[in-house]
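Translate structure to sequence.
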């Protein structure tokens, strides 16, 4: 946890999506609501805003989902950004059916939301003969029905979107798969950070050569130490003939345990980079 998350200082963080998005909900969780957001259309814009001290203090970015898996383009953005991970948030994604305060279920004729949100709620939506309309963003759909005081249109979005836009949750948690979690990374500029004094999780990136058992050597070193590798993700290295780089997340009891592992894998890796040492997130 960062000083800002506990001291009451408000930070300004870039997020993908509009006000009321799940990214903003995750930012509120991490910073205990001591946060304002700079809304961006794309994750590439999020990273650009996070790198600019005149615009933000950093960013919060989704990195993987318990159903859809890793968001591979965001790992590439992380690698190229030179930003540092200072924390993570695991948040359950609850999709809610939102309407204006005077609207009832029988008034609804259309439901608007991002296509992925609609797909996540098909089992509930199939009970009705509503027209389903794809939108650019869940929170934007909520904002539109509030602005237009729509009486026959509902939106699928977050609880926060309902609160921000004065909407009624007419049906909560309508997603088909209830155990749907997204992991978000909290990123800051390295020049704004001091040396990591506490933490029990780290994220790294490294390359191995084509020699036989090169990756196995790295994994065996990690396995022998008091470190638990919770994720290993491979990516092709651009411009090479099928050489790969690897992203790894590791959990440990003492930072010294992690530092020992890093010293031992240096001789059998290249391009070894630490994205950050931070406190592991809890499941919200």
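Result:
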């Amino acid at each position: 946890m960062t000083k800002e998350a506990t001291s009451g200082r408000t930070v300004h963080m870039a997020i993908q999506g509009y006000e009321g998005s799940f990214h903003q909900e995750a930012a509120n969780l991490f910073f205990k609501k001591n946060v304002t957001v700079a809304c961006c259309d794309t994750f590439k814009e999020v990273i650009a805003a996070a790198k600019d001290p005149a615009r933000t203090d950093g960013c919060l970015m989704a990195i993987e989902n318990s159903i859809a898996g890793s968001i591979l383009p965001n790992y590439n953005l992380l690698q190229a950004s030179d930003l540092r991970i200072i924390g993570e948030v695991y948040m359950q994604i609850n999709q809610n059916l939102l309407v204006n305060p005077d609207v009832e279920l029988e008034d609804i004729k259309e439901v608007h939301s991002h296509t992925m949100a609609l797909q996540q709620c098909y089992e509930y939506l199939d009970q009705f003969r509503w027209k389903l309309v794809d939108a650019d963003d869940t929170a934007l759909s909520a904002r539109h029905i509030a602005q237009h005081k729509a009486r026959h249109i509902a939106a699928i979005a977050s609880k926060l979107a309902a609160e921000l836009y004065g909407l009624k949750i007419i049906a909560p948690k309508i997603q088909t798969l209830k155990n749907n979690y997204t992991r978000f990374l909290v990123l800051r500029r390295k020049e704004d950070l001091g040396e990591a004094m506490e933490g029990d999780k780290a994220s790294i990136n490294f390359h191995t050569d084509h020699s036989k058992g090169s990756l196995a050597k790295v994994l065996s070193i990690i396995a022998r130490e008091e470190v638990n590798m919770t994720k290993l993700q491979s990516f092709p290295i651009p411009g090479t003939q099928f050489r790969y780089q690897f992203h790894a997340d590791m959990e440990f009891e003492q930072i010294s345990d992690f530092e020992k592992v890093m010293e031992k894998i240096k001789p059998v890796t290249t391009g070894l980079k630490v994205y950050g040492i931070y406190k592991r997130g809890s499941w919200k």
